[in-house]
Specification:
Rossmann fold, 2 domains, alpha/beta, 21% strand, 8-stranded mixed sheet, 8 strands
Protein backbone atom coordinates (compact mmCIF):
# COMPACT_ATOMS: atom_id res chain seq x y z
CA UNK A 1 0.00 0.00 0.00
CA UNK A 2 1.38 3.40 -0.98
CA UNK A 3 2.01 5.77 1.90
CA UNK A 4 0.18 9.09 1.67
CA UNK A 5 2.39 12.17 1.74
CA UNK A 6 2.39 13.69 5.21
CA UNK A 7 0.73 17.10 5.57
CA UNK A 8 3.20 20.02 5.31
CA UNK A 9 6.04 17.56 4.65
CA UNK A 10 8.43 20.08 3.09
CA UNK A 11 7.96 22.53 5.97
CA UNK A 12 8.44 19.76 8.52
CA UNK A 13 11.62 18.55 6.80
CA UNK A 14 12.95 22.11 6.80
CA UNK A 15 12.20 22.50 10.51
CA UNK A 16 14.43 19.46 11.17
CA UNK A 17 17.26 20.62 8.92
CA UNK A 18 19.61 21.09 11.88
CA UNK A 19 19.69 17.29 12.42
CA UNK A 20 18.35 16.00 9.10
CA UNK A 21 20.88 15.89 6.29
CA UNK A 22 19.11 15.63 2.93
CA UNK A 23 21.59 14.99 0.13
CA UNK A 24 20.69 16.38 -3.27
CA UNK A 25 21.41 13.56 -5.73
CA UNK A 26 21.02 14.82 -9.28
CA UNK A 27 22.39 11.61 -10.80
CA UNK A 28 19.77 8.91 -10.31
CA UNK A 29 22.23 6.25 -11.40
CA UNK A 30 23.45 5.10 -7.98
CA UNK A 31 26.75 3.71 -9.30
CA UNK A 32 27.60 7.02 -10.89
CA UNK A 33 26.33 9.08 -7.97
CA UNK A 34 28.53 7.34 -5.42
CA UNK A 35 31.71 7.94 -7.45
CA UNK A 36 31.73 11.67 -6.74
CA UNK A 37 32.46 11.92 -3.01
CA UNK A 38 30.80 14.53 -0.84
CA UNK A 39 32.05 13.40 2.55
CA UNK A 40 30.29 14.84 5.54
CA UNK A 41 32.50 16.13 8.36
CA UNK A 42 31.04 14.22 11.29
CA UNK A 43 33.54 15.60 13.80
CA UNK A 44 32.18 19.03 12.95
CA UNK A 45 28.57 17.87 12.79
CA UNK A 46 28.65 16.16 16.21
CA UNK A 47 31.18 18.55 17.72
CA UNK A 48 33.33 15.74 19.11
CA UNK A 49 35.45 12.70 18.20
CA UNK A 50 33.23 10.04 19.82
CA UNK A 51 32.70 6.64 18.19
CA UNK A 52 30.08 6.60 15.42
CA UNK A 53 27.44 3.92 14.93
CA UNK A 54 25.04 3.66 11.99
CA UNK A 55 21.47 2.39 11.65
CA UNK A 56 20.37 1.68 8.09
CA UNK A 57 16.60 1.82 7.71
CA UNK A 58 15.72 3.64 10.93
CA UNK A 59 11.98 3.87 10.25
CA UNK A 60 10.22 6.13 12.74
CA UNK A 61 13.31 6.29 14.94
CA UNK A 62 12.30 4.48 18.13
CA UNK A 63 15.39 2.24 18.13
CA UNK A 64 18.04 4.85 17.39
CA UNK A 65 16.51 7.41 19.74
CA UNK A 66 16.47 4.96 22.63
CA UNK A 67 19.98 3.78 21.78
CA UNK A 68 21.26 7.36 21.69
CA UNK A 69 19.70 8.13 25.07
CA UNK A 70 21.30 5.05 26.61
CA UNK A 71 24.72 5.91 25.17
CA UNK A 72 25.21 9.69 25.25
CA UNK A 73 28.94 9.38 24.55
CA UNK A 74 28.40 7.58 21.25
CA UNK A 75 27.37 9.34 18.03
CA UNK A 76 24.63 7.88 15.84
CA UNK A 77 23.84 8.29 12.15
CA UNK A 78 20.36 7.06 11.23
CA UNK A 79 19.57 6.43 7.57
CA UNK A 80 16.08 6.32 6.05
CA UNK A 81 15.44 6.85 2.34
CA UNK A 82 11.72 7.66 2.66
CA UNK A 83 11.24 11.35 3.49
CA UNK A 84 7.71 10.65 4.70
CA UNK A 85 9.16 8.36 7.38
CA UNK A 86 12.46 9.99 8.34
CA UNK A 87 10.72 13.26 9.17
CA UNK A 88 8.91 11.51 12.03
CA UNK A 89 12.20 10.08 13.32
CA UNK A 90 13.90 13.47 13.22
CA UNK A 91 10.94 15.18 14.89
CA UNK A 92 11.06 12.56 17.64
CA UNK A 93 14.77 13.18 18.28
CA UNK A 94 14.17 16.93 18.46
CA UNK A 95 11.13 16.51 20.70
CA UNK A 96 13.11 14.32 23.12
CA UNK A 97 16.12 16.64 23.08
CA UNK A 98 18.54 14.01 21.77
CA UNK A 99 21.81 15.63 20.70
CA UNK A 100 23.91 12.65 19.56
CA UNK A 101 21.91 11.47 16.54
CA UNK A 102 21.76 12.88 13.02
CA UNK A 103 19.73 11.58 10.10
CA UNK A 104 20.55 10.92 6.46
CA UNK A 105 17.64 10.95 4.02
CA UNK A 106 19.15 8.74 1.33
CA UNK A 107 19.38 5.18 0.03
CA UNK A 108 21.90 2.69 1.43
CA UNK A 109 23.55 2.43 -1.99
CA UNK A 110 24.98 5.94 -1.78
CA UNK A 111 26.27 5.92 1.80
CA UNK A 112 29.94 5.69 0.65
CA UNK A 113 29.38 8.99 -1.13
CA UNK A 114 28.79 10.75 2.20
CA UNK A 115 30.51 8.60 4.86
CA UNK A 116 34.33 8.34 4.78
CA UNK A 117 35.93 4.90 4.87
CA UNK A 118 36.57 3.17 8.17
CA UNK A 119 34.82 5.53 10.58
CA UNK A 120 31.83 3.40 11.62
CA UNK A 121 32.18 1.18 14.68
CA UNK A 122 28.84 -0.65 14.37
CA UNK A 123 26.01 -0.99 11.85
CA UNK A 124 22.44 -1.90 12.82
CA UNK A 125 20.04 -3.54 10.37
CA UNK A 126 16.69 -3.84 12.11
CA UNK A 127 13.91 -5.64 10.25
CA UNK A 128 15.05 -4.70 6.78
CA UNK A 129 12.58 -5.62 4.05
CA UNK A 130 13.32 -9.30 3.24
CA UNK A 131 12.33 -9.02 -0.46
CA UNK A 132 11.56 -12.75 -0.75
CA UNK A 133 11.23 -12.90 -4.55
CA UNK A 134 14.39 -14.36 -6.07
CA UNK A 135 14.73 -11.55 -8.58
CA UNK A 136 15.09 -9.01 -5.77
CA UNK A 137 17.98 -10.73 -3.98
CA UNK A 138 20.48 -8.02 -4.96
CA UNK A 139 18.28 -5.41 -3.27
CA UNK A 140 18.43 -7.13 0.13
CA UNK A 141 20.54 -5.13 2.56
CA UNK A 142 22.60 -8.22 3.41
CA UNK A 143 23.35 -9.17 -0.18
CA UNK A 144 27.14 -9.43 -0.68
CA UNK A 145 27.15 -6.22 -2.74
CA UNK A 146 25.96 -4.31 0.33
CA UNK A 147 28.20 -6.24 2.70
CA UNK A 148 31.21 -5.19 0.63
CA UNK A 149 30.03 -1.58 0.91
CA UNK A 150 29.72 -1.92 4.69
CA UNK A 151 33.31 -3.19 4.85
CA UNK A 152 34.40 0.19 3.49
CA UNK A 153 32.38 2.10 6.06
CA UNK A 154 33.31 -0.06 9.06
CA UNK A 155 36.53 0.20 11.00
CA UNK A 156 38.61 -2.99 11.14
CA UNK A 157 36.86 -5.30 13.59
CA UNK A 158 33.61 -3.33 13.24
CA UNK A 159 30.31 -5.05 13.93
CA UNK A 160 27.01 -5.58 12.10
CA UNK A 161 24.00 -6.37 14.27
CA UNK A 162 20.97 -7.58 12.33
CA UNK A 163 17.46 -8.51 13.46
CA UNK A 164 14.67 -10.01 11.37
CA UNK A 165 11.46 -11.97 11.81
CA UNK A 166 11.94 -13.75 8.46
CA UNK A 167 13.73 -17.11 8.72
CA UNK A 168 14.55 -17.30 5.00
CA UNK A 169 16.10 -13.84 5.13
CA UNK A 170 18.03 -14.87 8.25
CA UNK A 171 19.45 -17.93 6.46
CA UNK A 172 20.20 -15.90 3.33
CA UNK A 173 22.03 -13.35 5.48
CA UNK A 174 24.11 -15.97 7.26
CA UNK A 175 25.24 -17.31 3.90
CA UNK A 176 26.03 -13.80 2.66
CA UNK A 177 28.14 -12.93 5.71
CA UNK A 178 30.13 -16.12 5.29
CA UNK A 179 30.53 -15.54 1.56
CA UNK A 180 31.80 -12.01 2.19
CA UNK A 181 34.36 -13.05 4.79
CA UNK A 182 32.66 -11.78 7.94
CA UNK A 183 33.10 -13.64 11.22
CA UNK A 184 29.77 -14.73 12.72
CA UNK A 185 29.85 -13.91 16.44
CA UNK A 186 26.23 -14.82 17.11
CA UNK A 187 23.35 -16.48 15.26
CA UNK A 188 20.27 -16.53 17.48
CA UNK A 189 16.96 -18.01 16.31
CA UNK A 190 14.84 -16.85 19.26
CA UNK A 191 15.95 -13.50 20.61
CA UNK A 192 12.88 -13.20 22.84
CA UNK A 193 13.78 -16.40 24.68
CA UNK A 194 17.35 -15.17 25.05
CA UNK A 195 16.00 -12.23 27.07
CA UNK A 196 18.99 -10.00 26.32
CA UNK A 197 18.70 -6.96 28.66
CA UNK A 198 20.60 -4.85 26.12
CA UNK A 199 18.09 -5.55 23.34
CA UNK A 200 15.96 -2.57 22.34
CA UNK A 201 12.58 -3.73 21.08
CA UNK A 202 11.52 -1.83 17.95
CA UNK A 203 7.92 -1.13 16.88
CA UNK A 204 8.10 -3.91 14.31
CA UNK A 205 9.70 -6.29 16.78
CA UNK A 206 6.90 -5.85 19.31
CA UNK A 207 4.33 -6.40 16.58
CA UNK A 208 6.03 -9.62 15.44
CA UNK A 209 6.41 -10.90 19.01
CA UNK A 210 2.69 -10.27 19.59
CA UNK A 211 1.97 -12.42 16.53
CA UNK A 212 4.04 -15.25 18.00
CA UNK A 213 6.92 -14.89 15.53
CA UNK A 214 10.52 -15.72 16.35
CA UNK A 215 13.01 -12.89 16.24
CA UNK A 216 16.34 -13.82 14.63
CA UNK A 217 19.59 -11.99 15.32
CA UNK A 218 22.99 -12.16 13.66
CA UNK A 219 26.07 -10.38 14.96
CA UNK A 220 28.93 -10.38 12.46
CA UNK A 221 32.44 -8.94 12.62
CA UNK A 222 34.29 -7.25 9.79
Amino acid sequence: MRMHRKPHLDRRLLSCSDILLVPEITDKNMKNAVKEKEYLNFSQIFGNENNIELEIGCGFGSFVCELAKRNPNTNYIAVEKISNVVVSAAERAKREGIKNVFFLNCAAEVLPKYIPDGIIKKIYLNFSTPLPKLGYAKQRLTHPRFLEEYKLLLEKGGIISQKTDDRDFYLFSLESYNQSGYEILESCEDLTALADPENIVTEYEQKFISCGKNIYRIIAKN
